[in-house]
From TrEMBL:
Keywords: Signal. The keyword Signal applies. It comes from the Bacteria. Residues 1-23 form the signal peptide. This is Outer membrane protein beta-barrel domain-containing protein. It comes from Rufibacter quisquiliarum.
Length: 249
């Protein structure tokens, strides 16, 4: 498992370092690890590029959960400015299984709306700065499958033992521009289908609070100029789960 973690982390770093500019900024997939009716999961994550994510989920029954996710980003740099907002909701099925009933399978689908704008800045040798501004509103449909395991593994840190939970998720997202403007001139809208696999590790600080590290990639199935797979997911965050089965031993 640790070797797998290292491999996916290395791949994520490669994509993070070499990613091209894209108007699509993927959010951190919601992986609530729901186990029983009445369980509430909330999380806050920040990617290494500064994309702030807020995820929440609630189990309305022993096998049905609902999701609400949001993300935002506002970065200003010397060569590029980028702003992004996304709000999405969904629902689906979850169940626990395994010899100790400590493995969780979740299947969710949902719909989201967002906007992003990017401004490229280029300075000539004479010191004149030119701008290329791109703006879009978009709709997003997603389907994701989460698999996680609340196994009895531990990390020793400062003389204390902290339980570790592991999980993976595969999200398929169809993102479709509702409008696209470049330098105040309307442009043909683009769409793309993204495959977004991620791997996460959680360190249990208390029965309800966990630290999460997420690494993942983003692959576009269509060749596009602006709605491309130029950004990946690499983040740290905190997840709080209240209620549910007592599987964090």
């Amino acid at each position: 498992m640790l070797k797998r973690f290292s491999l996916l982390s290395s791949l994520a770093l490669v994509f993070f370092a070499s990613g091209c500019s894209s108007l699509y900024m993927p959010n951190v997939p919601n992986t609530p690890m729901l186990t029983a009716k009445g369980e509430l999961s909330t999380g806050a994550h920040i990617t290494f590029r500064g994309n702030a994510n807020f995820n929440s989920a609630y189990a309305v029954s022993d096998h049905i959960g609902v999701l609400l996710n949001g993300s935002m980003m506002n970065n200003s740099r010397k060569k590029e400015d980028f702003r992004h907002m996304l709000l999405e909701g969904g629902g689906g099925y979850f169940t626990t299984f395994g010899p100790e009933n400590n493995r969780v399978l979740e299947i969710y689908a949902g719909l989201g709306y967002g906007s992003s704008d990017r401004t490229h800045k280029k300075e000539s040798p004479e010191g004149v700065v030119s701008y290329d501004r791109q703006e879009t509103n978009f709709k997003k449909l997603f389907l994701q499958v989460n698999y996680s395991s609340k196994k009895k593994r531990y990390l020793r840190l400062f003389g204390e033992k902290y339980p570790l939970n592991y999980g993976t998720a595969l999200r398929v997202s169809h993102v479709n521009m509702l409008g696209f403007v470049r330098d105040n001139v309307s442009q043909p809208a683009e769409d793309n289908i993204f495959l977004e696999p991620i791997f996460f590790t959680r360190m249990v600080l208390s029965p309800h609070v966990q630290l999460q590290y997420t690494s993942g990639s983003n692959f576009g199935l269509k060749n596009r100029d602006f709605m491309t797979a130029g950004n990946s997911v690499l983040s740290v965050g905190v997840v709080i789960n209240v209620g549910g089965l007592n599987l964090r031993k």
